[in-house]
Design a protein that fits this description.
- With 416 residues, this protein is an alpha/beta fold.
- Helices cover 21% and strands 21% of the residues.
- It contains six helices and 24 strands.
- The protein is elongated and about 80 Å long.
- The N and C termini lie far apart (142 Å).
């Protein structure tokens, strides 16, 4: 009996020991979990002390920006971004950061990365994907510098963004299709980078877009359709896209009326690979600047172009435009360049209203009209008929030659 009781006592003690060990193990697990949960909260609490009332998410994004980007040699933009100092409010102390108060927290609404003054060293590094987690951001701009890498797809989450500018940097890859979700975007400026691929078709559906500059990249494909831009009853109503700059890319295709909103005031497609007719631009009566040079456009020049009241620059040189130049009234355009095409017929006297006129390297014939240009750049073909080729070259490139003095001499001469 004594032995049995002793054995039972040992067994009972063993069970209690095992239960104690299990309890200790559970307690350790609970403590570890609590540590994992509370550490970020304590860190966030310290963070909030550092950053005043800036929302922890926004502060985390600013940290990611500082980790991903840095000043170029000689730059000082990030010198104010000191996360180690106590009592610092990034909304007040960090350069390029502007916040608004929402539900008791400061939220980043404007982020201007890099120096504002032209000529100062910009930034290098990459655009961190965390930038897409600033829900109240309305403006994101990066100064010219050496920022490289792709545009983060996460930027498509910035539903309140109305301006995105990152020109004169080294961005690569394509423009993300996710940006099609930026329905409030008014300005997209990504010129002078190394972007490639097609322009996302969704850009054409942005109802607020006013300013689109994608020049000096390696973009291919066609211009996206702005199908609702000419429809005043569209829902929501479209803003007036008035500036479209796609020059110096590798874009192709033909110009259609849906590609070109009637609200355009500035249109530059120079140095691409467009083909076909330019009839679609004949309806863009609000144009002030039109440059279609250095493409492969063909067919006749719409006569309506010469009558646009506000047009100051009409640059159609270096194409394959043909047929006669029909001008129905005196031209008031400052600069007209029709050189290096296949234009035929006589030169209209109404072109005399242009301040600077390039007609060289065409197939014009007939009589040179009486003119009173303030400065005349006469067609090389004309001059070659009248003078020797060396004078022709001098007339075409009149570096120091006052052509007004020879206007009267040329005006009364007829071509053979």
């Amino acid at each position: 009996m004594g032995i049995a009781r002793a054995a039972a006592a040992v067994a009972s003690g063993s069970r209690e020991l095992q239960q104690h060990r299990r309890h200790s193990l559970r307690l350790m697990v609970v403590l570890i979990i609590l540590t994992l949960i509370t550490s970020p909260l304590l860190e966030a609490q310290d963070t909030l002390q550092l950053a005043s009332n800036l929302h922890p998410t926004d502060l985390g994004v600013l940290r990611a920006v500082k980790n991903a980007m840095t000043d170029l040699p000689g730059g000082t933009f990030f010198s104010s971004w000191d996360f180690s100092a106590t009592g610092i409010d990034p909304c007040q102390m960090f350069a390029g950061v502007v916040c608004i108060n929402i539900q008791g927290y400061s939220r980043v609404t404007l982020l201007s990365l890099g120096p504002e003054e032209a000529g100062l060293p910009g930034l290098t590094g990459t655009l961190p994907p965390e930038l897409g987690y600033l829900p109240f951001l309305t403006q994101l701009s990066i100064s010219p510098g050496a920022v490289s890498g792709p545009i983060p797809r996460s930027l498509g989450r910035l539903r309140n963004l109305n301006l995105f500018s990152c020109s004169q940097n080294l961005l690569t890859g394509s423009i993300p299709q996710s940006l099609a979700g930026l329905q409030k975007l008014q300005v997209l400026q990504l010129s002078n980078n190394k972007l490639a691929g097609a322009i996302p078709s969704g850009i054409g559906s942005w109802p607020s877009l006013e300013f689109l500059v994608l020049s000096d990249n390696r973009l291919t494909g066609a211009i996206p359709m702005f199908s609702s831009s000419n429809n005043s009853t569209s829902t929501p109503p479209r803003a007036a896209l008035n500036h479209l700059d796609l020059r110096n890319n590798e874009l192709t295709g033909e110009l259609m009326s849906d590609n070109l909103p009637s609200s355009l005031e500035f249109l530059s497609l120079t140095n691409n690979q467009f083909t076909g007719s330019i009839a679609a631009v004949g309806n863009l009566t609000k144009l002030k600047y039109l440059d279609l040079s250095f493409n492969q456009f063909s067919g006749e020049i719409p006569s309506s172009l010469f009558g646009f009241v506000g047009l100051s620059y009409l640059l159609l040189n270096r194409n394959q435009l043909s047929g006669p130049v029909i001008v129905k009234a005196e031209v008031t355009i400052k600069v007209v360049d029709l050189s290096f095409n296949l234009l035929v017929g006589s030169v209209s006297p109404f072109l005399a209203g242009a301040q600077i006129l390039y007609l060289n390297n065409n197939l014009f014939m007939g009589t040179i009209p009486q003119v009173s240009f303030s400065c005349l750049l006469i067609a090389c073909l004309f001059a070659c008929f009248l003078l020797d080729p060396f004078h022709c070259f001098q007339i075409y490139y009149p570096y120091a030659l006052d052509l007004c003095s020879i206007t009267t001499f040329l005006a009364n001469l007829a071509l053979p």
